[in-house]
Amino acid sequence: MNVHVLDDGAIERTLEALRAEAPAGLLARTMATAGLADAYAPVQSPIGPVLVAYSAHCVSAVGLAENAASFEMRVAAELGRPVRRVEALPPDLERAVERRLAGDRRVRVPFDLRRRSPFERAVLEKALEIPTGEVRPYAWIAAEIGRPRAVRAVGTALARNPIPLLIPCHRVVRSDGMIGNYSMGGPTVKRAVLEAEGMDVEAYVSEAEAGIRLIGSDTTKVTCLPTCRHARRVMPRHRVRFGSLAQALAAGYRPCRVCRPISLAA
Amino acid sequence: MNDRLAVSLAGDLDGSFEQLVRDHQDRLYSLALRYLGDASDAEELTQDAFVRAYRALAGYEPQRRRELQVRPWLSTIVLNLCRNRARRVRPAQVDLDGLDAVATHAVQGRNGAAGQPETHALLREDAEVWARRVRALPARYREPLLLRYVDDLAYAEISTALGIPEGTLRAQVHRGLALLRSALEQETAAAGPDGAAGRSALQLAEVAL
Questions:
Q1: pLDDT in tens, B167-180
Q2: A20 contacts B29? CB cut-off 8 A
């Protein structure tokens, strides 16, 4: 090899050849991290892959993976920012989202709800308090946020939930046992999500249809909403069923302090 | 074009930031890639640099944004992040470099140098082998060389980015090129016709510096 012919010019050209093109997703990820745009990527969930959009490290939207085009349009329209697909979420955010979707409520996932009204934010934040595997009636949410008469508006706010699954609007159901509709694919999917979370939907629906609204324990004399973890602990032979809170209170039962059925009295 | 961008940055930062990223992402990514030697580290770092730049710009008065020399300023941000990261990962990286140098040698012809008429056998090596030679240089030669040829800054801009007078920079670039050539000569001499032992020669050159 004739190394001696390698002059400074050749070395300079070689160094210039070290220039490279930035990877395709760099722009989209940079704009999303700076909070100037949203980027989205598919993430695994109990109901299959879903699309998760983020901006400035906050999750801004979740949608069904099979409708990427309509998801993009919806996000762009709702957030008023450009949205682009990237290969993956930032690693720490992806880990948090996946663990949260797998039912781990200790993981904190920050949400971007800036474009929601204060009422809608209150509804969505209240829904976040419902534990995995449990459900609450719409009227319970309305009462808990101090708007007991706004039950229909609660339903609307939950139907407009931009971040389904992660904000568990699916855990809000009608107290008569109707599971209700679901933006992520209809009532069947809502049922499937609840079952994937470990809830016995069949048992809940049949009791609710029979008019049962509360469960009590005749040893503790505490009454709970049917899916409350304290209600599920009650042994069958001590299990008491009530059609209303008034009925339970009249029987000398105290409302559970965890699931707060007292809210339904409002 | 840079001036127009500076003016729009001064006015509508959020609206013009995407153009700033488009204009500078290739050169800043190249700088990070050749400084660190790892594509995913470089991508993450470049993104981090842009986000830091955005936050800094958002805090600046419009006047200061207008007067900012965007090109060297962005290079300085990348360079500082590179230095911090290189300091953190240096021990592990040296080991890996030694182990996979020969393997990298085998991957050839990915950069454009191959097709050029003045092509020399050594120029056809994988770009990363060359980048490794540059990384083996002391910082005072390595950084001016990267900024001059990979980041494509003018001497005046490098002077702003590094805070070093232009005359000194020209001397450092000249000396850096000479060091690269002598490292290469020693490598080739040690390697013999089939280039097998090139790596140890480079390490010798490194020690000599």
A1: 999 999 999 999 99
A2: yes
